[in-house]
Description:
Layout: E1 3-11, H1 18-21, E2 27-31, H2 39-51, E3 55-59, H3 77-95, E4 102-105, H4 109-117, H5 119-132, E5 137-141, H6 145-152, E6 156-162, H7 186-199, E7 201-203, E8 209-211, E9 216-220, H8 226-239, E10 242-244
Amino acid sequence: MMRTLDFNGDLGEGGEQETELLPFLTSASIACGGHAGDAGTMRSTAAACLAHGVALGAHPSWPDRAGFGRREQTRSAAEVYALVREQITVLSGVVHPLGGRLRHVKPHGALYNQAARDEILAEAIARAVRDVDPALVLFGLSGSRLLAAGRACGLRVAAEVFADRTYQRDGSLTPRSHPGAVIESVAAAATQVKRMLFEGTVGTVDGGEISIQADTLCLHGDHPQAPTFARRLHAELSAAGVLFKEP
């Protein structure tokens, strides 16, 4: 059975092994100053992606460099709209002189997870993306409120699944503070991904099973074994009939 899938990585976050992922990715979400990144890292990361034919996306987050954007915040819809729009615009301004353009937006960390369940936050993000460029694809957790908000705004959306994270019964990712949140075995990650793609389900940490849609697959660039995971996943999925392409 042939399946198409985007294989994305979160880049520009300062990881030493990020460039090793590029031969296997079809898209990259680049940190744009909230949790990590500055003009220099945005430029160098975007240039490396373009050299490898990897589609570019923005990875906006809460302005929280000390916490790497992984601490939840409470802000008004207007504030969320403004910070997301600003970060996308900043990265776009870096990318255009390189001859590239942004193709998608994927919130980072706590902003991503909060938007998955908070309708007001999700709507603010979706409006910001649309108002920058309605052609941008909005990435969000499969089954989340963020994807629903994107569709309501007229955006194309991509349901994201994760190779290196485990799932809760409600479809959310297991919090990183919990045991077993991160999948350490590349074999287990490959098994999980193939199940999501070809069966439309994923196992949960409590032994259950939930339905899931997979349009784009994320591998975190800061995972200790990220290059090994990327190589193995790409090889196994290609052998299983998956065609990799940007969404």
